[in-house]
Amino acid sequence: MKLKSLIITSALLLAACGYTQAQSTQVIAHRGFWKTDGSAQNSIAALVKADSINCYGSEFDVWLTADNQLVVNHDSTFKGVNMQKSTAQQCTAVILDNGEQLPTLRQYLEKAGQLKTRLILELKSHKTPERETRAVESIVKMVKDMGLENRTEYIAFSRHATKEFIRLTPKGTPVYYLEGDLSPKELKEWGCAGPDYHFSVFKRHPEWIKESHDLGMKVNAWTVNDAKDMKWLIDHGVDFITTNVPVELQEILQ
């Protein structure tokens, strides 16, 4: 009888540990929650919809235009308009798939101020380090002026942009590097909050997840849309998963 009770207790403890681990993984909507009616990638609607389903964060992409304004879009050239070579007026004249105009960063942040979800801001890699520095300076100032410093995290593929975010944001601001070519120890030396790598990098280097945690850093994996990959990452204890299908991930976590 005692053995049976011990087995049951052990099973319950294991289940509880698994539940706790699953609950500790947070959902980030990639380019907002855009795979739903009335939405589009990097639209303000996608931000609102990510907030409406209680995502930890909504990821979005930022460019510096030719006239030094900030706009929100993923592709360097979208519907025939090059983000870096065009003016803000030319960029925002582009109509997204849901009928919205391509938003400026200011418009995006104005709406974000009414919401709760965290802002996962990716600065796209620009033509020169000087342009990236100018973009980072403008972004950091705008975020501060709009009172969103405590809700904004920064990510970049560019080493220069990553280091500039670390240099210019308030101490403790989460800044993550995306490329996948540096170890957790190297990222810690930079001052990064942790690795934000494609999930395939962690499958090649699963030890990097534990190493990051041992160094006091967080781990995010992108862009994860397959349930098997989600479950593997959850089982390995990643802190965040960025996905195009946030509702499916939420269902797995529950």
What is the fold's blueprint, element by element?
Elements: H1 2-24, E1 26-29, H2 44-52, E2 57-64, E3 70-72, E4 77-78, E5 81-82, H3 88-92, H4 105-112, E6 118-123, H5 129-145, E7 152-156, H6 159-168, E8 175-177, H7 184-190, E9 194-198, H8 199-204, H9 207-214, E10 220-222, H10 227-235, E11 240-243, H11 246-253
Parallel strand pairs: 1-2, 1-11, 2-6, 6-7, 7-8, 8-9, 9-10, 10-11
Antiparallel strand pairs: 2-3, 4-5
Helix pairs in contact: 5-6, 10-11
Keywords: Signal
Domain GP-PDE: 25-253
Organism: Bacteroides clarus YIT 12056
Keywords for this entry:
254 residues; alpha/beta; 8-stranded parallel β-barrel; two-stranded antiparallel ribbon
Looking at the structure, the CATH topology is TIM Barrel
Domain module tally: 1
Report strand order across the widest sheet: 1-2-6-7-8-9-10-11
Order of helices and strands: HEHEEEEHHEHEHEHEHHEHEH
Gap from first CA to last CA: 33 Å
The structure class reads alpha/beta
Q: Based on Cα principal axes, name the global outline.
A: globular
Instruction: Determine the mean pLDDT.
Output: 93
Our Rg estimate from Cα atoms comes to 19 Å
The CATH architecture assignment turns out to be: Alpha-Beta Barrel
- Which parts are unreliable, with pLDDT below 50 for 5 consecutive residues or more? 6-22
Pfam family, one: GDPD
Keywords: Signal
Protein name: Glycerophosphodiester phosphodiesterase family protein
Signal peptide: 1-22
